[in-house]
Amino acid sequence: MDRRVLIIDDDPSLLALLRAELESRSYEITTRTSAEEGLQALAEQDFGVVLSDLTMQKMSGVELCREVVTLREDTPVIVITAHASIESAVAAIRAGAYDFVTKPFDADDLGLTIERALRHRELREEVKRLRRAVGEQQPFDEMVGESAPMKKMFQVVARAADSVATVLVTGESGTGKELVARAVHARSPRASGPFVAINCAAMPESLLESELFGHVKGAFTDARAARPGLFSKAGGGTLFLDEIAEMPLGMQAKLLRALQERTVRPVGGDAEVPFDARIVAATNRDLDREVQEKRFREDLFYRINVVRVEVPPLRDRENDVLILAQSFLEHARSSGRSRVIGLKSAAAERLASYPWPGNVRELQNCIERAVALAEFDHIGVDDLPERVRQYQPATVPSQSTDVATLLPMEEVERRYVEQVLHAVGRNKAFAARVLGMDRRTLYRKLERWAHHGATTSRNRAWQGDHEEDGVAGAHL
Ligand SMILES: Nc1ncnc2c1ncn2[C@@H]1O[C@H](COP(=O)(O)OP(=O)(O)OP(=O)(O)O)[C@@H](O)[C@H]1O
Ligand SMILES: [Mg+2]
Fold first, then answer.
1. Which of 88, 168, 412, 463 is the most buried (most CB within 10 A)?
2. Does the structure show a pLDDT above 80 at 135?
3. In contact, 323 and 274? CB cutoff 8 Å
4. If you measure from the C-alpha of residue 366 to the centroid of ligand 2, how many angstroms do you get, rounded to a whole number?
């Protein structure tokens, strides 16, 4: 049991009294005389329980409770109140306080309340730990994927989660970078701490700085009270910096400093506040290139690129397209939004051959739409968006009339088969269906092409002829 108790009260004689009483019960006591200082202490380290006066100058105990809930969700707060102000004690409970004690207090009562708060906290943490253990038996159930590149990525994610290093998640738009960031957090020892996300592209530099680092009271016109930043709020957990490549260069310098020093300086203040957050960053840009073109600081790049998770584009994930489609269908069905249970094979073929430039997000939208349109319990080609329905893979036989570039039939066949295989994620049974070919026939052809390099011998002979004769198509 964590026996560290933080006591916040602006009355030094009461603090001394409480300290003596609780130290005699073998608690480890830290005291602060204002809510602001109390929050600061909480941002720096964890306490088993917080004991706070309800009526203080500047920030009240009720406001304090609200801040503690966002800063350290698991830390119970017990408020101390005079008999006369039970109403505000109730307000504190609504704001997230665990319990209250009334002044003048009975030392045994206070001791019991603290013990109960600590036990409550332990139980909560135990429940979270168990949930995590159960979750671990179904690895990545929130991320669907069985293809080789995804399995490889899951391994990297698991390793990243175990380490304390900064993680950089890269990948095209819609590939699932945010899900990966959440998975890194959920599988890390910090899983019971907060996951705090911020989109660096969504804010001007001045706002971003106070969001990330917090500000002191009076730092700017609206800053009526001090506010901790996201680095502090993510204490004990993970801070997710999404779209980090969009961060303005000035802010990049400040971020680099924070990461190097492991402290932040709230806007308007000059004190350095240590933080205890694990950093995960994501971008869909090519950061190496951003560095080359001086839009991203090289030193910051090295700081954040400690462990790299590359999320593969959907077109490289073999059969995952159909597995994902099915899981989105089931999701819609179990949430009562549809009765659709599957895909008609023609629709499945279109999904499998479409290259999905918008990746998983585009597929998800496509399925949501199809589910809404579908008249039957299987999605048909007509339920798919036009771009998917109309998509024609670049046809192999060229439109050329230059005889020299025309291909023998078997080479056309080999290339087309290759294209279909690629489109269906190298699932041969599926490819055979698309090609309207017996599965064994396909296997035989592949076998032959693998051993004899397709029709290369004929190609070579043909080319040889062509060169000798110096006349295009002379062999015809
Ligand atoms: N492997 C997956 N399994 C299930 N759902 C997924 C998977 N990958 C992504 N998704 C879903 O696809 C959508 C897009 O994912 P996410 O927002 O994580 O992508 P992103 O890479 O962050 O995109 P962007 O670059 O546009 O920010 C989300 O709704 C997410 O739940
Ligand atoms: Mg994203």
1. 168
2. no
3. no
4. 18
Q: Is the pLDDT of residue 199 over 70?
A: yes
Q: Which of 63, 161, 147 is nearest to 425 (CA)?
A: 147
Distances in whole angstroms, Cα of residue 244 to Cα of each of 81, 161, 180, 198, 358: 45, 20, 15, 10, 20
Is the CB of residue 178 below 6 angstroms from any atom belonging to ligand 1? yes
What would the two tokens of residue 27 be?
């608690």
Structure pTM?
Answer: 0.60
Query: 280-316 b/e with 16+ CB inside 10 Å = b?
Result: bbbbbeebeebbeeebbbeebbebbbebebbbbbbbe
pLDDT category of residue 470 using cuts at 50, 70 and 90: very low
Q: Summarize pLDDT for 15-45 with one digit per residue, the tens.
A: 999 999 999 999 999 999 999 999 999 988 8
Cα–Cα distance for residue pair 423/350, rounded to 1 Å: 9
Rounded distance, CA 376 to CA 386, Å? 19
R_g of the chain, CA atoms, integer Å: 31
Site to substitute for ligand 1 among 150, 168, 173, 178, most atoms within 8 A of C-beta: 178
The finding on whether 319 has its CB within 6 A of some atom of ligand 1 is: no
Mean pLDDT of the chain, nearest integer: 85
> What residues contact residue 416 under an 8 Å CB cut-off, 6+ apart?
396, 435
Beta bridge partners, 82, equal 103
> What is the distance in A from the centroid of ligand 1 to the CA of 328?
12
Tokens at residue 95, please? 């704001």
144 ligand 1 Cβ < 6 A: yes
**Cα 448 to the chain's mean position, in Å?**
45
Strand partners, 152: none
3-state helix, strand, coil in the chain (%, to 5): 55, 15, 35
Instruction: Calculate the alpha carbon distances from 424 to 55, 325, 329, 396 in Å.
Output: 67, 14, 19, 17
